[in-house]
User: Fold Maleylacetoacetate isomerase from Methylosinus trichosporium.
Amino acid sequence: MKLYDYFRSSAAYRVRIALALKGLEVERVFVHLARGEQRLPAFLAKNPQGLAPALELDDGTVLTQSLAIIEYLDTLTPSPRLVPADPLRAAKVRGVALAIACDIHPLNNRRVLDYLRGRLGQSEEAVDLWVRHWALTGGLEAIERLVEPGPYCFGAEPTLADVCLIPQMFAARRFATPLAALPKLLAIEAHCAAHPAFAAAHPARQPDAE
Assistant:
């Protein structure tokens, strides 16, 4: 398998965590989003959305969207299970994962911020305010109330919720988002940081890190 990756992409970060948790080795192909490599024809032929990550299987099939890729990996290698077998716990885990991946992250995505800076002519100060507002208000503040730490988001083992939370916390810190009012999330983040799989997937430890 090949993972089309970018060290600072939150979505790619999620997939790296999942792969590391499952002990799966993949070939890495780096797509530099800041240089626009995701818009090159060769990459668009793989993923017409022009987004990272993408996972190319051995038969040439390409999977897109981080949560779809992770659920595929969870089926392919069901141990450790990232989406619980219990339907109620699975719904809670997916609820947090989707709140991050669908409601928080897209508003802080590079292409949105580039549009704010470029087409709408917003200053860096205004863009930073946008990021901090959408990351915190109705975002991470809500996640703080949804999780049930034990010590991960939902119990003693990491799940899809943790896989999504940690990259979002990293992104929030990049934009100096105040996090002091989120003690449960900070405790989960600290616990994950001590886990080898989360540590290995950290952006600073990637070959393409800058």
Remarks:
- The beta strands are 2-5, 27-30, 54-56, 62-64, 148-149, 154-155.
- The chain has two domains: 2-80+199-205, 87-195.
- The mean pLDDT is 96.
